[in-house]
Amino acid sequence: MKVRIPSPVYPVLAPILLERNIKLTIKRDDLIHPLISGNKWRKLKHPLAAALQAKKPGVLSLGGPYSNHLLALAAACHELGLASAALVRGHEQSTPTLAHCQALGMALHFVSRQDYRCRHDPDWLAQWQALYPDWLLLPEGGSAPEALTGVAELVAELPPGWDQIWTPVGSGGTLAGLVLGAQGQGEIVGVPTVKDAELPARIQGLLAARHCSHQNYRLLWGHEGPGFGKFSPAMGEAIRALEAELGVPLEPLYSGKLMLALWQAVESGELDGKQIVMLHTGGLQSLDGLRAQGRWPDA
């Protein structure tokens, strides 16, 4: 599979950063692959390799109708010769993301929002697994314990001397993988993009499954806006303004919320004198769906 690893790291040279002696670089994982971009390839790399080695016929996973994970999974399975299927949250519908998934051969099963709340219940998942015997089952967002290894590998690609890595947090796998890879170095700052009270416990569970006891991370709540997949008009305007000022492509569900939180910390003086890495986890494909919904202006 042709992926751009290591992904490039670009410095940000805004005047306020120079004034405050902040060295900010952006790890552009969004440039890894046109479809299998960002943290998605990092998390899929090792589970899919294991599926191929075990001669699994396909992969079953879960996500919403605009899921970056599902599109990346469909594309990766298509390239690797694996079948793919997904449990999609909500009523039967067509979105640019789902249409692309289907074009790549992914079978879709629509699940009511109420039933989708059972997505972490082993018994509920087992019923679906029975429809796809011997397939690999990946959790929402691809955040399986085995996925952490691919994310952990990213840390070795970073420039030396960093103090903090900032990342958006959805299902928790990327943050946990960074903690695993950092091995106690620096601090990992996670900006949740969801209102999920179970997120801290899920991150701890992922770390425990990998026998990782490091606790050099924190979750910076308060920037999730109305919740997962949602943002206020004011947030959208602020994200577009930062995108134009910094010359970095952003979307309002992950990287945009992260940048708003990071820039607030810059302006507050919290990061003065520090060397910061912002992880761009991709997700720019979601803009097609947001534009189709009239929630984001045309490019």
Sketch the topology as an H/E string, one letter per element.
EHEHEHEHEHHEHEHEHEHHEH
User: Can you name the CATH architecture of the largest domain?
Assistant: 3-Layer(aba) Sandwich
**Fraction of residues in helices?**
25-40%
Percent of residues in β-strands: 15-25%
Going by helix content, strand content and strand pairing, the class is alpha/beta
Q: Which word captures the global form?
A: globular
Task: Write down the Rg.
Answer: 19 Å
**Largest sheet features:** 6 strands, mixed
Overall description:
- With 299 residues, the chain is of the alpha/beta class.
- The chain folds into 2 domains: 175 residues, Rossmann fold; 104 residues, Rossmann fold.
- It has a 6-stranded mixed sheet with strand order 1-2-10-7-8-9.
- Strand 3, helix 3 and strand 4 form a beta-alpha-beta unit.
- The chain is globular, with a radius of gyration of 19 Å.
- The two termini are 29 Å apart.
- The relative contact order is 0.16.
